[in-house]
Design brief:
Two copies of one chain form a homodimer. In chain A, the strands form two sheets. An eight-stranded mixed β-sheet of chain A has the order 4-3-2-6-5-1-12-13. Chain A has 314 residues and is of the alpha+beta class. In chain A, α3 links the parallel β3 and β4. Helices cover 33% and strands 23% of the residues of chain A. Chain A has a single domain, classed as 4-Layer Sandwich (Glutamine Phosphoribosylpyrophosphate, subunit 1, domain 1). The interface between A and B is large, with 50 and 50 residues.
């Protein structure tokens, strides 16, 4: 009997309304998610590691303007793009992350480089970009990240902000603004797991806000038993240390992946009025894709089956 | 029977050699740790919350040049001071954190303000400082953080760096450079828990390195069952999500605080050749202060007993 292997991806969760989705846009999203799945799956099929598979799959989504990561990253209040990313190797327990980087086309590649070529886990801002240039990364101009859709989202958020006044500084975010992140988790033929998450953060964010996508344990985690990548309203994932919470429920509580992922979403998100979802895979090839939003861009391709790509609830 | 309450603090762990310690320095350290304990304990004794107690205790250590946080923060490669801090309220599950701030005298106060006055958990760099000024914080000049001892540590690290060449960019850090952070955990009369950690990071650090002290779950965690603050080689605490790992062992594995803290230090630090320690307290007033270094500046003062302050192993 051959070992199972495969990959699971997400392209963000949120108020994805069927009424706002055109057939053209839906087709584009499904096409890109399917491409990301095959790119990652091919790495696994050739016998290479899960770490490379999740990175390559995330790269496809980062390179697309459709998702809030890389090219399609949303704009901050100041009209910039500040991105966060984390990658973790479940076999070695090593991890790399970057936060608040503005000129990196593929933040997940920089996170991987932090993991492989530095003694650190997390580098931020200009310091992370200095590390990038010293390691051969090309800094892209901010025009690289310009898309009409994201710019219009910022203008809409700024207008809402003028119309409202919120003492807590909630930045007049719509539910849509809070979501969107891309990620992948994979199990390779050797039984090793990995997870990767890359995010453009929140439209109109200020003050150098960093979300769960830069925090090992919150938005991303992998060990020898499972790999998790999350998407949604990041602060809830940070407070609940959600990605690691799933691993801990399995490790210490003896739960299955599905039980652990479902319980963690319920207790850390739904019960606390937080929104989002996650993807997870375990060492036996079980997968879970729970979310409590209208939709989550998601897909999986396992060695035993056909590719599955979905947007809305079933 | 009255509920137990109390506070536990640390001022960093590392290669604290008796041979390098003068009686004068030892007396100063013990005096400041004792002051921090009493300041925090007084808050609890008056019936106020654990959150205020840990913040006030950390303030005392931040205001002293003796510890690597606030005033005594170590220098980065560029001769600056970049600090990280996190605070978490176990009762509400809320948390606030800052990373890479250069001009904040008491980073733990800014972390508390992020928690109370923003919808976010983590703010970084200049963005965090802009949030600070908008909320009435005074930015201090970099001279505030100048101490001869820290400057000499940087010069020594720069000299070592010139003499060695390390492809992994390990920055020629001595064991001493990797440690030092201050923190506090407390249980108040109402049965609520809180944790706070504040750190100047690593001498000679570059590239905007951020450690576990800015990451909820890694260096700081509190829920209704326990509160944890860590100190040591931060990257190990981040990969193992160590502070939350202790809570998870108790929550899902049914371990006692002491068992959970001991097992987590063993598996995440000692077995992986990482160094450091932590302080923890649970809802019943049990405490744990494990470390695998030569020493850890530490102390506790519980409602039932006398203050205890120690530096070396017993």
């Amino acid at each position: 009997m051959t070992r199972p292997f495969g990959i699971v991806i997400h392209g963000g969760a949120g108020t994805i309304l069927k009424s706002k989705m055109t057939p053209e846009k839906e087709a584009c999203i499904i096409e890109t998610l399917t491409e990301a799945l095959y790119v990652g799956f091919t790495v696994l099929q050739k016998g290479h590691g899960a770490l490379g598979a999740v990175r390559k799959a995330v790269n496809v989504m980062e390179n697309s303007p459709l998702f809030n990561a890389g090219r399609g990253a949303v704009f901050t209040h100041d009209g910039l793009n500040e991105q966060d990313a984390t990658i973790m190797d479940g076999f070695t327990g090593q991890a790399g992350a970057v936060a608040g980087v503005r000129r990196i086309a593929n933040p997940i590649d920089l996170a991987a480089r932090v993991m492989s070529d530095s003694p650190h886990v997390l580098l931020i801002g200009e310091g992370a970009e200095r590390f990038a240039t010293e390691h051969g990364f090309k800094l892209v101009d901010k025009e690289y990240f310009y898309t009409d859709q994201r710019w219009e989202q910022l203008q809409a958020a700024l207008t809402r902000e003028k119309e409202t006044s919120d003492r807590k500084g909630d930045l007049a975010l719509s539910e849509d603004d809070k979501h969107g992140t891309v990620g992948a988790v994979a199990l390779d033929k050797h039984g090793c797991l990995a997870a990767a998450t890359s995010s453009g953060g929140m439209t109109n964010k200020r003050f150098g806000r960093v979300g769960d996508s830069a925090c090992v344990g919150a938005g991303t985690f992998a060990d020898k038993q499972c790999a998790v990548s999350t998407t949604g309203h990041g602060e809830f994932f940070m407070r609940g240390v959600l990605a690691y919470d799933i691993a801990a429920r399995m490790r210490y509580g003896g739960m299955s992946l599905e039980e652990a992922a479902g319980a963690s979403v319920r207790e850390n998100l739904t019960d606390r009025k937080g929104t989002g979802g996650l993807i997870a895979i375990d060492k036996d090839g079980n997968i879970a894709l729970p979310f409590n939003t209208e939709g989550m861009y998601r897909g999986y391709l396992m060695s035993a089956g056909e590719p599955v790509v979905k947007i809305f609830k079933e």
